[in-house]
Design goal:
By secondary structure, the chain is α+β, with helices and mostly antiparallel strands. It has six helices and ten strands, in the order E-H-E-E-H-E-E-H-E-H-E-E-E-H-E-H.
């Protein structure tokens, strides 16, 4: 089976988790200014939700460079971040068991500019030159999230989405259900509910497994060495 350009690792050991947090620091603190860099003197952006989440990092297979990341906040969390922000129709979730939901957040994607590659989040507009790369990384991360969700019995995703990311997902025929009006939250955002069954036609066709444990990957490298 032909391997894709990017490999996704479940950040379950210190080095990969640090790579995840560094990408978020670059994007949310330095590039976008959504968080105060002074609050993260170690150059790693994290918050209280990370204790109830799993983290993925997409690496370029040829260079080993971390190119993208996403966080999945698990239903064990007392409340999802989107619930704290509000601005959505709670009735849309009334028929869904909480333990079957998770929230996608902190999606970071690369964007290529004339000055060179630079990381941005889903809210950034992508040029034509970088759209394909951003799309490939996003779908690789989403496929890892989808496979993880299936393994955990998750049936629905929640997530605030920007117009740019909505267009990217729509281009891949991923169906989104808006459950709230657009609001200002780190730029224009709208909360969407994504039933995992909507993802199957698009993400079920990708190669499997969609991700590896970083801990297991490290053990393989050590045994080969």
């Amino acid at each position: 089976m032909q391997m894709g350009r990017y490999e996704v690792l479940l950040a379950d050991e210190p080095e990969s988790l640090a790579a995840h947090f560094r990408l978020r620091y670059q994007v949310y603190c330095l590039d976008k200014g959504y968080e105060n860099p002074a609050d993260f003197p170690d150059g790693m952006e994290c918050d209280e939700h990370d204790a109830h989440a799993v983290h993925f990092v997409a690496y370029d297979r040829s260079s080993g460079q971390a190119m993208g990341a996403v966080r999945l906040i698990l239903p064990e969390h007392p409340s999802f971040p989107c619930e704290q922000v509000g601005g959505f129709d709670a009735a849309a979730l009334s028929g869904i068991a909480r333990e079957r939901c998770l929230e996608l957040s902190r999606l970071c994607l690369p964007k290529t500019r004339k000055s060179g590659p630079r990381l941005v989040t889903e809210q950034g507009e992508s040029s034509a030159a970088s759209m394909l790369q951003s799309c490939e990384i996003a779908m690789t991360l989403y496929q890892a999230a989808y496979e993880f969700s299936l393994s955990q019995g998750i049936t629905h995703w929640l997530g605030f989405t920007s117009p740019a990311m909505r267009r990217l997902l729509s281009s891949q025929k991923v169906r989104l259900e808006a459950i709230g009006a657009p609001l200002e939250h780190r730029g224009e955002r709208q909360l969407y509910l994504i039933p995992c069954r909507f993802l199957a036609p698009q993400l079920g066709r990708f190669q499997r497994p969609a991700y590896r444990s970083a801990q297991q990957a490290r053990q393989v490298c050590v045994s080969v060495a």
